[in-house]
Amino acid sequence: MPFARRSHELWRELELEGDEPLLHDTGGLIICPAAGDTDERWGDFVGATEGVAQRADLDFERLDPAMARRRFPGFRIGDHEAVGFEPAGGLVMAEFAVTAHLAAARRRGAATHVNTTVTGIDTASSGAIVRTDRGDHRARRVVVCAGPWTASLSDARRLRVTRQEVYWFEADLDIWHSERNAFAIWAGAEMADYLGVFAVPPNAPLQAVKLVPEQFAIATDPATVDRTISDNDAERFFETMVAPRLNGVTNRCVNRSVCLYTNTTDDHFLIDTLLDSENVTVVSACSGHGFKHSAAIGEALAQQATGLDHLDLEPFRRNHRQPW
Ligand SMILES: Cc1cc2nc3c(=O)[nH]c(=O)nc-3n(C[C@H](O)[C@H](O)[C@H](O)COP(=O)(O)OP(=O)(O)OC[C@H]3O[C@@H](n4cnc5c(N)ncnc54)[C@H](O)[C@@H]3O)c2cc1C
Question: Contacts by 202-208 with C-beta closer than 8 Å and gap 24+?
């Protein structure tokens, strides 16, 4: 919660420096089968989220399915499903946020080296040498946040990388505009039934509903992963996952993309130094739920690296959890 709250403030501060809205206050729907009738990974996800909201003093509404269908007509919520609504939830525009962070860092004097590949990190007692295809950099402190490639640059060997598919479908914006609809985390009875549904923000480059299923069954390698999605895959996804569950979405798939999740074995964050050097910190991707915390995690890491007070990162160290 401290990271969620601080990130919320930081997105708003960062927005003031540029022209693009970064955070849209849509509210968030959480839908899952009634307790006891779902995959154990999800459990009673609505009840658990309500508990977190209560402890954090955040608004959280329980909706009965009929009320939820009236209020959010894009969702064909079943009578057997539990529904929660978090009014403070929202959408962060990921690409604009990354661009804005880079620009803000440069304005404050940071040097950025894009299109540069790190080939290795040599640790030393006084710091580390970052080796790249365009020369070496010496530093007292290094923070590695390489997403799916983290294992190749650190001793975090047990991270699991999975291939994920993202789809954008044409939709009726009277229903799906982000000012009239929430985002939804929709768990099903099986893991394979999960659907992330994102309403369409006004500054989204593609004015289409973004839909994200999840799979954790098959691991992959970022170097060799198949980045294509066939027309057949898109059709099957629409028939099985979209048409039965959403209103106002057509079968015209306007874009699709493969991306990667990188997760620890217990799905929690991983933020810790290398076993053989206190000077190199590794930050896991915490995929599927990490981006919204990234502004505050980045701030805390920068403060830690420069010896300033920061939010507590201790709970994410490896000795509190399973090994990497
Ligand atoms: C389908 C999908 C949906 C998601 N949905 C959500 C969501 O709804 N909410 C949420 O909060 N999060 C979500 N996430 C997770 C979020 O995208 C990640 O948590 C976040 O992007 C992780 O950031 P990162 O900086 O750790 O890694 P990344 O974003 O993967 O960035 C790693 C960077 O390191 C660079 N890199 C790697 N190796 C090298 C090297 N050797 N040299 C130089 N550069 C290198 C890569 O090029 C890349 O730019 C989702 C992710 C996916 C894939």
Answer: 202/21, 202/177, 202/178, 203/20, 203/21, 203/93, 203/96, 204/93, 206/168, 206/254, 206/255, 207/173, 208/168, 208/169, 208/170, 208/171, 208/254, 208/255
- Any ligand 1 atom below 6 A from CB of 118: yes
User: Domain ranges in the chain?
Assistant: 28-88+160-263, 119-159+266-320
pTM of the full predicted structure?
0.93
Same fold, 28-88+160-263 and 119-159+266-320: no
Residue of the CA atom closest to atom 6 of ligand 1: 288
Span 28-88+160-263 CATH architecture: 2-Layer Sandwich (3.30)
> Does 84 sit in the ligand 1 pocket, CB within 6 Å?
no
Ligand 1 site, residue 292, Cβ cutoff 6 A: yes
Any ligand 1 atom below 6 A from CB of 249: no
For ligand 1, atom 3: residue with the closest CA: 288
Mean pLDDT confidence for 161-178: 97
* Model pLDDT for residues 50-89, shown as the tens digit of each residue: 999 999 999 999 999 999 999 999 999 999 999 999 999 9
Using most ligand atoms within 8 A of CB, pick from 149, 154, 293 the residue to mutate for ligand 1: 149
| CATH annotation of 119-159+266-320 | 3.50.50.60
CB of 10 shorter than 6 A to ligand 1: no
